[in-house]
Write a structure and sequence with these properties.
Strand order of the largest sheet: 3-2-1-4-5-6-11
Strand content: 15-25%
Bound molecules: nicotinamide-adenine-dinucleotide, UDP-4-deoxy-4-formamido-beta-L-arabinopyranose
Structural class: alpha/beta
Number of helices: 11
Radius of gyration: 19 Å
Largest sheet: 7 strands, parallel
Shape: globular
Helix content: 40-55%
C-alpha cells in the first residue's frame, strides 16, 4: 500500500507541483487547502499530468475543529508537508496580525494534531528571507540568521523555532525545514503554474505578464547595487526541482532520520535581474520592455545558496537549466492568457 502524505496548501503554486512529484513517486496525496490564494483547478492540472487527482479537503488550518476532523479521516498519514501560509511581504507589513494568525496559528494547529494523531513527519516551507542581508555569500545552513525585516519573514523564523521546540518536546515527531530561495517556472506541460492575484510582487510573474502585454513594462528596481552589473542577485530555482526536494526530504525522514533537518534549496548560482531579462529573451525570443526604477525598500542586494548539504544528505540537487525554466514560465503564461 502506498504511504499517505497530507499536503496543506497543496492547491497553491509550490504545493501543486509537489503533489505531482509525490504522486509520481508513488505516494498517496491528500490536500488540505482553503483556496484563499489558489484555485481548485490546479488539482485538475495535477490529475491531467499524473492520471491521479489528489483527494481534496477544503479546510482552514487556523480552524482547529475543522482541521481535527480532516486529520481524523487521515490519521494513517505518514507525513505532512505544510505549505499553507500567506506570502506577500508588503501585505504582511500593513496587516501583520493576519500573517501571524494565519502562518503561525495554522502551523501550531498542524503540529498539535500531528501529535494527537501520531503523524510522525513534517516538512516546513521556510525561506531564504531568514538570512536577511547575509555577510558572506553563498549562504550555508550555518550562516547566522538575521532579525526578520517583515512580519512575513518573522513568521518563517518563528515557524522554524516553534518546530524545533516541538520536536525537542515530542521526539516522536521529525521535521525538515526547507529554506527556499526564489522558486520560478511551471510544470513543462503548462497544466499548472503560478497564479498571482492582481499585480505581481515577484519578478518572474511580472516578467511573463509584461511579455504577454498585461503590464506595459517591467520596473527594474535599482541598477546601482554593489554587485557585478549593479543589479540585485538572486538564486532562481526551478519549481519542479524544488518540488522533488520535498519528496527527498520525506524519504530521508521515512528511512529513519530523526530530529530537525535544515536545508537550503537553490541552484547555487546567483543571477542578476538583468541577466534574467537577457536569459528570458534567449529562451523565449521575447524582448522585454523595461525601465530602471528606484531601489525597492528592503531589498537584499545579493543572495544565493550553497546547497551542498541537500546534495550530500538528501541526494537532491537542482538539475533543470535556467533556459528551460524560463521557457516553462512563458508557456504557462501563454496558456493562462490564451496566447498561441
Ligand atoms: P501559494 O499562495 O500559491 O500557496 C499557499 C496555499 O496555501 C494556497 O493554496 C492557499 O490557498 C493556502 N492557504 C493559505 N492559508 C491557508 C490556511 N489557513 N488554511 C488552508 N490553506 C491555506 O504560495 P506558494 O508560493 O505555493 O508558497 C507555499 C509556501 O512556501 C508558503 O508557506 C510560502 O510562505 C513558502 N515560500 C514561498 C516562496 C515563494 O517565492 N513562492 C519562497 C519561500 C517560501
Ligand atoms: C527578485 C528580484 C527585485 C519585481 C521575495 C520575498 C521572499 C520570498 C521570495 C517567500 C529583486 C527585483 C522584482 C519587479 C524587479 N518569498 N524585481 N522588478 O525579493 O528575492 O523575495 O519573494 O518567502 O521572502 O521577499 O523576490 O521576485 O520579489 O524579487 O526588479 O517588478 O527582482 O528587486 O532584486 P525576492 P522578488
Amino acid at each position: 500500500m502506498s504511504q499517505k502524505i497530507i499536503v496543506t496548501g497543496g492547491a497553491g503554486y509550490i504545493g501543486s507541483h509537489t503533489c505531482v512529484a509525490l504522486i509520481e513517486s508513488g505516494f498517496d496525496v491528500v490536500v488540505f487547502d482553503n483556496l484563499s490564494n489558489s484555485q481548485i483547478d490546479s488539482l485538475d492540472g495535477v490529475a491531467r499530468i499524473t492520471g491521479t487527482r489528489p483527494e481534496f479537503i477544503n479546510v482552514d488550518c487556523t480552524d482547529i475543529t475543522a482541521l481535527r476532523s480532516a486529520f481524523a479521516t487521515h490519521r494513517d498519514a505518514v507525513g505532512v508537508i505544510h505549505f499553507a501560509a500567506f506570502k506577500a511581504v508588503g501585505e504582511s507589513v500593513s496587516n501583520p496580525l493576519l500573517y501571524y494568525r494565519n502562518n503561525l496559528g495554522g502551523l501550531i494547529n498542524v503540529l498539535d494534531l500531528m501529535r494527537e494523531f501520531d503523524v510522525p513527519n513534517i516538512v516546513f516551507s521556510s525561506s531564504a528571507t531568514v538570512y536577511g542581508v547575509p555577510e558572506k555569500l553563498p549562504v550555508t545552513e550555518q550562516t547566522p540568521l538575521q532579525p526578520a525585516t517583515s512580519p512575513y519573514g518573522a513568521t518563517k523564523v518563528m515557524g522554524e523555532n516553534i518546530i524545533r521546540d516541538t520536536v525537542r518536546a515530542y521526539p516522536q515527531i521529525s521535521a525538515t525545514l526547507l529554506r527556499y530561495f526564489n522558486p520560478i517556472g511551471a510544470h513543462p506541460s503548462a497544466e499548472i503554474g503560478e497564479l498571482p492575484n492582481g499585480i505581481p510582487n515577484n519578478l518572474m510573474p511580472y516578467i511573463t505578464q509584461t511579455a504577454a502585454g498585461i503590464r506595459e513594462y517591467l520596473n527594474v528596481f535599482g541598477d546601482d547595487y554593489d554587485t557585478p552589473d549593479g543589479f540585485c542577485v538572486r538564486d532562481y530555482i526551478d519549481i519542479n526541482d524544488l518540488a522533488r526536494a520535498h519528496v527527498a526530504a520525506l524519504r530521508h525522514m521515512l528511512s529513519g532520520a530523526t530530529g530537525v533537518g535544515v536545508f537550503n534549496l537553490g541552484t547555487g548560482q546567483g543571477t542578476s535581474v538583468m541577466e534574467l531579462i537577457d536569459a528570458f529573451r534567449d529562451a523565449t525570443g521575447v524582448d522585454l520592455p523595461y525601465r530602471i526604477a528606484p531601489r525597492r525598500a528592503g531589498d537584499v542586494p545579493a543572495i544565493w545558496a550553497n546547497c551542498d548539504l541537500a546534495s550530500r544528505v538528501l541526494n537532491w540537487r537542482a538539475v533543470v537549466p535556467l533556459n528551460e525554466t524560463l521557457a516553462s514560465a512563458w508557456r504557462w503564461q501563454k496558456h493562462v492568457s490564451g496566447i498561441k
